[in-house]
Amino acid sequence: MKVHLRSFQCVLFLWLSLFAALAGADAPTVIRMGVPGVGVGNRPVTGGSSASTMHLRGMLEKEFEKEGIRVTWSFLRGAGPAVNEAYANGLVDFSLLGDLPSIIGKAGGLKTRVLAATAIRQNLYLTVPAGSDIRSIDDLKGKKVSLFKGTNNQLAAAKVLEKFGLSERDVRAINMDTATAKAALSTGDIDAAFGGSDYLALRDQGLTRLIYTSKGDDPRFLRHCTFVGSQDFIEKYPEHTLRVVKTLVAAAKWMADQDAHPESAFQLWTRSGVTFSNYKEDWQSASLRLMSSPLVDDYIVSQYNWNIQEAKRFGLIRSTFRFEDWYEPKFLQRALEELGLVDFWKPADKDGKVQG
Questions:
Q1: Where do runs of H (alpha helix) occur along 41-194?
Q2: For site-directed labelling of 197, which of 28, 123, 151, 297 has its Cα 20 to 30 A away?
Q3: Considering only CA atoms, which of 135, 155, 152 is closest in space to residue 143?
Q4: CA 130/CA 202 separation, integer angstroms
Q5: At what angle do helices 152-163 and 99-107 cross, to 10 degrees?
Q6: In what helix (H) or strand (E) does residue 235 lie, and over which residues does it extend?
Q7: CA–CA separation, 64 vs 60, rounded Å?
Q8: How far apart are CA 251 and CA 42, in angstroms?
Q9: CA-to-CA distance for 148 and 86, rounded, in angstroms?
Q10: What are the pLDDT tens digits along the chain (356 aa)?
Q11: What are the respective helix, strand and coil percentages of the chain, to the nearest 5?
């Protein structure tokens, strides 16, 4: 009797071990996040979005810690093009990614899906050395201008140049990442640089002047990012994908809750090295509730479809596609439902105006 009982216990143990192994196979051991950029001084922190807020508040780590699933974050100085390379080599599962690099990746055959909006309606700035005689975009012809090629800065800059009757061919366009361009501006090795709010600090130090910002200009010149996932990961781990998107939406909700008093968000983001005052200036008159929206609404859809066509027109991609075929809405829809946030953010129309 004891022998039979012991045999039964051994068989039961083997079955339980097999069941546990099979259950574990349905879960990833690690979730790999890619970030297109670094903070000041190459620090592994960025700010200004629901994705960065999710990182800074450790929200993904808390979501998966009980199961022992690790979350890793790779901050890539090469920005969007470097994230695309990481996707191509199977080294990243999710990322914030700018409109142009994500479009280039998709057009080039990368198997990614857009899951939500994040870091939308970003401003573009044009900076020149403090002693420069350049006063407007009209003065850029023949000048050495830094463009971080392959990023959403490049496409926005191309639109701005065209508005003033110029193109990249009319300037001496030089491909530089943000850190390199900031150093070159400081030493006068370039005449101007297009970029984001990173350049405000140089102006505050008296090293540069701003001669253009997209704030208050044509909303088509704004830059956007979406939250993108690897199609392989999404298909293999749909429930874990949902939990990642839910966490992103929860981070967006935290941002929106700071709308009346955005100081908490700005202070959190200063861990990137960007100053509180620079965030305050960049986000002046902007609603955190609006800017945090994860909705892929008519505005985002129309902006991306237009940017796909613009990328083709400017020779940045060879073939076009429909944004609607790239976007996977079911995870965001379910996340909003489960979090009770279906009506929290109001969608914007194709011109960017919020309905209601």
A1: 50-56, 59-64, 79-88, 99-107, 152-163, 178-187
A2: 297
A3: 135
A4: 9
A5: 110
A6: helix 231-236
A7: 6
A8: 24
A9: 18
A10: 444 545 544 444 444 444 444 444 589 999 999 999 999 989 999 999 999 999 999 999 999 999 999 999 999 999 999 999 999 999 999 999 999 999 999 999 999 999 999 999 999 999 999 999 999 999 999 999 999 999 999 999 999 999 999 999 999 999 999 999 999 999 999 999 999 998 999 999 999 999 999 988 888 889 999 999 999 999 999 999 999 999 999 999 999 999 999 999 999 999 999 999 999 999 998 999 999 999 999 999 999 999 999 999 999 999 999 999 999 999 999 999 999 999 999 999 999 999 76
A11: 50, 15, 35
Tokens 């530089």 correspond to: 176
Which one-letter DSSP state was computed for residue 353? P
Q: What is the DSSP string of 173-215?
A: EEE--HHHHHHHHHHTSSSEEEESGGGHHHHHTTSEEEEEE-T
Question: Rounded CA gap, 17 and 55, in Å?
Answer: 35
pTM value is 0.89
- End-to-end CA separation in angstroms for the chain: 76
Dihedrals φ, ψ of 114, to 5°? -80, 130
Structural domains present in the chain: 27-121+223-338 (3.40.190.10), 125-220 (3.40.190.10)
Q: Quick one: which H or E segment has residue 245?
A: helix 238-257
Identify the sign of the CA torsion 316, 153, 289, 253.
Answer: positive
Rounded CA-CA distance 80/322 in Å is 20
Distance CA 212, CA 125 (A): 6
Backbone φ and ψ for 211, nearest 5 degrees, come out as: -115, -5
CA separation for the pair 352, 356 (Å, rounded): 12
135: how many CB neighbours lie within 10 A of its CB?
A: 10
> Count of alpha carbons within 13 Å of 268, Cβ hemisphere only?
21
Encode burial over 175-200: b for 16+ CB neighbours within 10 A, e otherwise: ebbbebbbebbeeeebbbbbbbbbbb
